[in-house]
Amino acid sequence: MSPLSNLAVRDIETLVHPYINLASFRETGPLVIERAQGVYVYDTEGKAYIEGMAGLWCTALGYGNEELVEAAASQMRKLSFAHLFTGKSHDPAIELAEKLKEIAPVPISKVFFCNSGSEANDTQIKLVWYLNNARGKPQKKKIISRVKAYHGVTIAAASLTGLLANHRDFDLPLPGFLHAGCPHYYRFALDGETEEEFASRLADELEALIVKEGPETVAAFIAEPVMGAGGVIVPPKTYFQKIMAVCARYDLFVISDEVICGFGRLGTLFGCEKLGFKPQAISVAKALSSAYLPIDAVMIPELMYEALLLESKKIGAFGHGFTYGGHPVSAAVAVKAIEIYMRDRIIEKAARRAPLFQARLKALGDHPLVGEARGLGLIGGLELVADKTSKRSFNPQHAVGAAAVRFAEAEGLIVRSVMGDVLTLSPPLIISAPEIEELFNRLARALDKTLDWVKRERLTQA
Ligand SMILES: Cc1ncc(COP(=O)(O)O)c(C=O)c1O
Q1: I want to staple 279 with a disulfide (CB 3.0 to 4.6 A). Which of 169, 231, 256, 403 is the partner?
Q2: What is the pLDDT of residues 362-418, one digit of tens each?
Q3: Counting atoms of ligand 1 from 1, which one is nearest the CA of 116?
Q4: Does residue 118's CB lie within 6 angstroms of at least one atom of ligand 1?
Q5: Quick one: average pLDDT of 110-126?
């Protein structure tokens, strides 16, 4: 291993990094990124990498977009900060809320701004509780998400998240947060079950869960159209139609967490459009500003707004809000990003490149290390397994996914490994066809090197 750079040493001595084994990180150190352009990022040595994850599923318009930079700079010169508390407002927030209402896939009455996906989903939960208090249903408060869902890390959002690492030793989830079955056919379908039968079973299990808990106590269901951080899980055919019917039967408020899927990731503006379901409320973030600045929007229907009116009249104020929620500079950038998505037909063009992306992804399904290659639009996952026939996973201690990430980095490609050794891909939507080809050429070489290493270390043995 090459000696750590001065920056790396300073990093290790000063930062706590999310989502890393903090102990082994002290040996390996960070990959320090210095600059970026288009779909490429460059480290401090000047080495170029294709950003196969668009950062964290977010830099949809790529790096170095001068229009976004200019939108931020001119707004910062004009009005660097203003808030939305206590009746104050500003132009960028109003314009962005109008835009979001205009492009929403379902009727949206109002928009509430936060700074992160976690804050948005926390807000969604608080609004549902508020709603049911306003409706005189104070018992109806439990929220259902799903095993392997990712909805963030604040205490309530982490309770929605259905991943062990986000719960273990954090004393989570909180009571009142339930997790329905994960719609991953490859892992959870029974022998001989078709996709549609699997979807029906998941809907029946959801119904049984609601009945067991008492429908009068269950308030809402939240879902990502395609699960991202849980391992890029595309639900089976007819899943959402069946799940939505159950939610309607028991008067569950439905929230689509579009933090990853919103703004074209799946080939449609919103992910719920691609998956064919109609939520009542929506969370968007990440690509909303193409991650040039933090901003998130909670999009709510009239029914919810009426409840907020009622409660704030009763209590005297709507007691919720973040200092930087709807920050004018972030909002101005998001307005410009939406203008670019529409004007330059970014989503249509990305959808046209999706078949190439998916074909190259699915071809890697033949690789000896890959149990399943899955995806939709410009999102993909490769589940690495020790044995393709039995679908046996690697021992997590061997960190095979993390090793594959390092081999990819050596090839000049950034990918991520999430729990269960799933390599995830979510490049900027502006990626060109030749860049897609290059991304997969690099990934294929990285997989071959990972396989050589796995064989050398005899890691396939049970
Ligand atoms: C679907 C989804 N929801 C919520 C979040 C949380 O967003 P944040 O990290 O901005 O809090 C994420 C983050 O990746 C996400 O993928």
Answers
A1: 256
A2: 999 999 999 999 999 999 999 999 999 999 999 999 999 999 999 999 999 999 999
A3: 10
A4: yes
A5: 98
Predicted pLDDT of residue 3: 80
* Alpha carbon of residue 1 to chain centroid: 33
122, 150, 166, 266, best to mutate for ligand 1 pocket (most atoms within 8 Å of CB): 150
Please tell me if the CB atom of residue 116 comes closer than 6 angstroms to any atom of ligand 1.
yes
| Residue 404 phi, psi (nearest 5) | -60, -35
Task: Give 128-181 pLDDT, tens digit per residue.
Answer: 999 999 999 999 999 999 999 999 999 999 999 999 999 999 999 999 999 999
Spatial separation of the C-alpha atoms in residues 37 and 87, rounded to whole Å: 40
